[in-house]
Please model this.
Amino acid sequence: MCGIVGAVAKDNIVPVLLEGLLRLEYRGYDSAGIVVANGKLHRVRTTERVAELAKLVSIEKTEGLTGIAHTRWATHGVPCERNAHPHFAGNDKKIAVVHNGIIENHEVIRRRLQEAGFEFLSDTDTEVIGHLISLHLEITRDLREAVCLAAAELQGAYAIVVIEEERPDRIIAARNGAPLLLGLSKNGNYAASDASALLQVTRRMVYLEEGDVAELTSSNYHVINITKNKLGEKVRRVELETDLTREAVELGPYAHFMQKEIFEQPVAIANTLEMVFNAHSLSPRLFGSEAESVFQKTSGILILACGTSYHAGLVAMHWLEAISGLPCSVEIASEYRYREPIANPDTLVVGISQSGETADTLAALKYAKSRGHRYSLAICNVPESALMRQTDLRFLTRAGPEIGVASTKAFTTQLVALMLLAAVFAKLRKKISEKLEQKLIDGLRHLPIAMQLALQIEPQIIEWAKNFSHKRHALFLGRGVHYPIAMEGALKLKEISYIHAEAYAAGELKHGPLALVDKEMPVVAIAPNDSLQEKLKSNLQEVRARGGELYVIADADSSIQESEGVHIIRLAEHAGMFSPILHTIPLQLLAYHVALQKGTDVDKPRNLAKAVTVE
Ligand code: M6R
Model:
């Protein structure tokens, strides 16, 4: 989704703004722009990539000490230069604004502003914010106060950064419902929607909270909050050194972030499990200091999530019910928030999200609370995200920054976290003995090595990928806990290779999808040595009998045999209950190599964004 960078410094800020935008490219965008205060407000915008914006900026020799920049992912108005940010505001164009989020009452405000004589040059809700600030500025004569008064009128989500021609020595930043942070350094102060944009200049950060408005100069900053008082009350926010390193957000020897992130999984999982390995036991404290008392009262689990995180939830449902005996339901967050569910107050609501900023997941969690659920738990990969601040309990997956739009290491670390959750409940509910607990911990300890071994199948996957790159459709089959893994495989393939892929519970084939199967249809089957293997084999026969080409991901000692039209890749070992985690790897690699062969933009697939911060 959109990205913001703002800077007010003692040197030319243009290189910082451009480098910041490059770091935010992974979030997805369709236009980019920059405004620099340099006597006048000087603006450059393009519907090309940031590299093209940089060329235009250098041709125009744009330089200055204060500026704002933005990558836009279109919501209101088509992707075009006219709709690209920054937007000028006021009919004299003396203010410039960038914005992430969606303003829900923009139409009402737009009409009011048009009646007041403001001219609109774009279709965006952002221009409404700009003109509203300008309207207030006519009266207050102070940009910060004008931003406060305008913000108080906005409904919806926003992170905004504003500069003004008359006072080029400062920038004003405000947030509500969309992430925004400040970066502090001796050389200047900065604002951005994501810490990775500012690592080039500083590691000292301040995360703004809902209703915060910050004023920054090159040597100072202060924050006020407008939640109780429209003009704001002074607040102190913690300054912290971010753990994020530049290496973590750089490609290193890899060709793509997705490839890097697939191969980082053994380490990501080991990092996520570090606390368990140190403690040698499964304690509810893994989920927060209050977890034990909450878990004692928990009589069921409701999981809310989107996309890949939803698939992790579906796997967890199998684990939670089978291992801990707790009833569990899983819902797509964007659907849950608009129905009228019956809430049991003692059902723990679990929100799963890599980014912790997915608008639907955040809204669904709030809604669950309003329906009467007492407690909530976040499983998330971003410590300072909105989700982590919204719930009673939390577990941080330690996958490290995930830049590729296709989620990989975040998914497998979510699965590890959810396995821990199931095991902790099983222990509390006396469903597992101490011996079994230790066996489980030993299994977890072995997991990073098992992942390393699973990654070694890459050469065979590259061969398979050659048979997929010219196909238009593919089916993915799984049964039981591996059905959500088939769903994840299909999602990975479609999002980065644009091949239409669907997943089915294999037993469902003959109820409809079998009609699609012919020799043009590759069918990928997740076939571990579990209790459903014999059933799955019969389903595979049904496919083969219709000429479908089978690509089977089996375990080392599987009885499934290779034959004409049946290709088999065997994982090095059978991972028992961890099998869904290992069986994910071939599917991620398959999607990656098919996309490579098709030449699509692996890390930034068309139309998609990394963090879906709008509904
Ligand atoms: O950040 P989240 O985990 O909440 O994101 C949810 C989905 O948008 C995300 O998993 C999406 O489906 C991925 N692009 C899939 O690879």
